[in-house]
Write a structure and sequence with these properties.
Helix content: 25-40%
Number of strands: 10
Low-confidence stretches: none
Distance between the termini: 30 Å
Oligomer: single chain
CATH topology of the domain at 5-105 and 173-262: Rossmann fold
CATH superfamily of the domain at 5-105 and 173-262: P-loop containing nucleotide triphosphate hydrolases
Structural class: alpha/beta
Radius of gyration: 19 Å
CATH architecture of the domain at 5-105 and 173-262: 3-Layer(aba) Sandwich
Number of helices: 7
Strand order of the largest sheet: 6-7-8-3-9-10
Length: 279
């Protein structure tokens, strides 16, 4: 088991519910995630959400990114623009733009090159032009995109567009990134590219936090250190709303950040599959 330390809360979701008319989509969603420090390395957080279709994952993600205002509850993240008080970092309610969001379409500016898109993502930064250029070029080098920096989206492969979309959000939104089904429809090579992108995000800052949804249980177990199951508590109830029905803390289980997929990981996959079928 990897030694780790839990530090300050980086994400606090309290009593979130969303309704459209008389239909409640998600109800009483509560969870909290803390900054996890691993001695001797930079280690961000990876949080996976699994759930059968219609359980409200996309709705929850819109709330987490400030794109949807909940009927009840709030989403809090640390407010690093303010000084700590009594040893605690003040919190703020998430607003649109605080959390990066990459949807399944990898929406990009058609009229901007890759470099121009990343420069636009830094438009609110107080850095100098030279500093912005240096930061962009470093990212392009790290992410294997340096040679296509002057290409437009229609000249890029699907994997290149996805990495560009992730970088845009990383540059504009800071430490938080939500990805809705980032592995959907990808071939083996592009799946490996996204996994490599997760690793790059993770090791660039310990506060970097990736939240993603997937239907691939094995990928979730392989990549995440915290897994939530969104489901219906009363599976037979047609009008039930989505909520968190299970949480698997892979750190506490000794399965996070593991170099190999072990029999214990496979056992967890089976447990999660059973949880999904029952919800």
């Amino acid at each position: 088991m990897t030694t780790y330390e839990r530090r300050d809360t980086i994400l606090h979701v309290e009593n979130i519910s969303v309704s459209y008319g008389n239909k409640t989509i998600i109800r009483n969603v509560n969870f909290e995630e803390k900054d996890t420090a691993v001695p001797g390395k930079v280690q961000g957080q990876v949080i996976a959400f699994l759930g059968r279709s219609g359980r409200g994952k996309s709705t929850l993600f819109r709330v987490l990114t400030g794109l949807e205002k909940p009927a009840t509850g709030k989403v809090l993240i640390p407010d690093y623009s303010r000084q700590p008080a009594n040893g605690q970092q003040p919190a703020k309610v998430v607003e649109e733009g605080d959390v990066g969001f990459v949807d399944q379409k990898y929406t990009l500016f058609r009229h901007k090159t890759l470099y121009q898109s990343l420069l636009f993502a830094l438009r609110k930064s107080m850095s100098s032009t030279a500093e912005k250029h240096g930061r962009i070029m470093q990212y392009l080098s790290d992410w294997g995109l340096e040679k296509i920096k002057d290409q437009y989206p229609n000249e890029m492969s699907g994997g290149q567009r996805q990495r560009t979309a992730i970088l845009e959000q990383l540059l504009s939104s800071g430490n938080y990134m939500v990805l809705d089904e980032p592995f959907s429809g990808l071939d083996v090579g592009n799946i490996e590219n996204v996994k490599a992108a997760f690793e790059l995000i993770n090791r660039s800052h310990e506060l970097n936090t990736i939240i993603f949804s997937t239907h691939d249980i094995e990928l979730a177990v392989q990549l995440a250190d915290s897994i939530y199951i969104l489901g219906h508590k009363n599976c037979a109830g047609s009008d039930d709303a989505g909520t968190i029905v299970h949480h698997y803390d892979l750190k506490a289980l000794g399965l996070a950040w593991h170099p190999n997929f072990t029999p214990q990981h496979l056992e967890l996959v089976q447990n999660i599959r059973s949880s999904l079928l029952a919800s």
